[in-house]
Amino acid sequence: MTTTEPDCLFCKIAAGQVPAEIVRDGERVLAFRDINPQAPTHVLVIPREHHPDAASAAKAGSGLVDAIVSEAHAIAEDEGIAGTGYRLVFNTGSGAGQTVFHLHCHLLGGRGMEWPPG
């Protein structure tokens, strides 16, 4: 698997080529605020390694999805929303709303979340 894709926006953010409001910067993952927030807390957690979606990362079996979820929880604690609840969203495919084809987890919180999601 290629670790980066030259035309991928999130690969460019991870490489420091495109600016973002960084929340956490780890060895395997990077977290930054969404530019179009859908909740008071809306952070994207991405791997530094390029995978097009959650399914491909899980199939690789490297524990990357676990690392992303663990990092998202740590951010929820830092943001003060872990106790009241938060939502993690992995969109897979354009039909599910994925627009950047680099695995990313949306951490959403700070307001009530409806079910089912829209």
TrEMBL record:
<feature type="active site" description="Tele-AMP-histidine intermediate">
    <location>
        <position position="104"/>
    </location>
</feature>
<protein>
    <submittedName>
        <fullName>Histidine triad (HIT) protein</fullName>
    </submittedName>
</protein>
<dbReference type="InterPro" id="IPR001310">
    <property type="entry name" value="Histidine_triad_HIT"/>
</dbReference>
<feature type="short sequence motif" description="Histidine triad motif">
    <location>
        <begin position="102"/>
        <end position="106"/>
    </location>
</feature>
<dbReference type="InterPro" id="IPR036265">
    <property type="entry name" value="HIT-like_sf"/>
</dbReference>
<dbReference type="Pfam" id="PF01230">
    <property type="entry name" value="HIT"/>
</dbReference>
<feature type="domain" description="HIT">
    <location>
        <begin position="9"/>
        <end position="118"/>
    </location>
</feature>
<dbReference type="GO" id="GO:0003824">
    <property type="term" value="F:catalytic activity"/>
</dbReference>
<dbReference type="InterPro" id="IPR011146">
    <property type="entry name" value="HIT-like"/>
</dbReference>
